[in-house]
Amino acid sequence: MSTNITTHANGESTWVSGGAKPAARSRRRSVPHLVVGVLLVLGCATGFLVVSLTADARQLVLALARPVAVGQVVTAQDLREVSLAVDTGVSFVDVRDAASVVGKRMSVNLPAGALLTAEAVRPAVVPAGQAIVAVAVKAGQVPVEVAAGAQVSVVRVPGRADTAESGPATEVSAVWPAVVVSVTSSPQEQDTVVSVQLSKAAARQVAAVPAGQVAIVLLAGGER
């Protein structure tokens, strides 16, 4: 095996053994590849970190499980959880604050799936001079279209005792204009409970009507 010494113009000497390329030059050529590899690893790590932070930023918030109307009292059944990427520009209610909105009234109409905001609800305060009374109505005495916010007439219908005393020509004894606050029905119960808001005097009269002698009439919007 022969060994040669090559002297360059700058005075440096390079040992060459058996015609092989100098080892030092090979190491210098591998440095750019090493730098590129490091940059690729850093890029992948940065991308993973960004994705992780984005995923961690998602939060469980409240949305509506069904449409709600102005004046309707919010119940737990009206709400559902959704996962939302946190954005400072979006208003929302955290699921942990659900108790703070249940029982309050809606201040706007919102469709199913809409995010619930703190501004969309207000305390369930009965206006001055008004009262809320719940009436149990039997099947066929309340339209299925009746919902919170609807304008209705609460009508007293003659009972069997009234018909026996006055005959079949007995007319309806009373009609009270009202606004529906909520409608609750259960598959196990035959009656539907409709909470209505009306004047204090009318509320007392409606509350005194015997069970089963009240019907709800749905009116056109704005009609009283």
3D structure, described in words:
With 224 residues, the protein is of the alpha+beta class. The chain has 3 domains: 23-56; 58-122, Alpha-Beta Complex (Type Iii Antifreeze Protein Isoform Hplc 12), CATH 3.90.1210; 130-218, no CATH class. Helices cover 22% and strands 30% of the residues. It contains 3 helices and 11 strands. The protein has helices spanning 23-56, 160-166, 200-207; strands at residues 3-7, 13-17, 58-64, 79-85, 105-106, 121-122, 130-137, 151-156, 174-185, 192-199, 214-218. The strands form 4 sheets. The protein has a 5-stranded antiparallel beta sheet. A two-stranded antiparallel sheet has the order 1-2. The chain has a two-stranded antiparallel ribbon with strand order 3-4. The longest helix has 34 residues, at 23-56.
Quickly list its features:
224 residues; alpha+beta; Type Iii Antifreeze Protein Isoform Hplc 12; 5-stranded antiparallel sheet; two-stranded antiparallel sheet; 11 strands
Short description:
This protein has 224 residues and is α+β, with helices and mostly antiparallel strands. The protein has helices spanning 23-56, 160-166, 200-207, and strands at 3-7, 13-17, 58-64, 79-85, 105-106, 121-122, 130-137, 151-156, 174-185, 192-199, 214-218. The chain has 3 domains: 23-56; 58-122, Alpha-Beta Complex (Type Iii Antifreeze Protein Isoform Hplc 12), CATH 3.90.1210; 130-218, no CATH class.
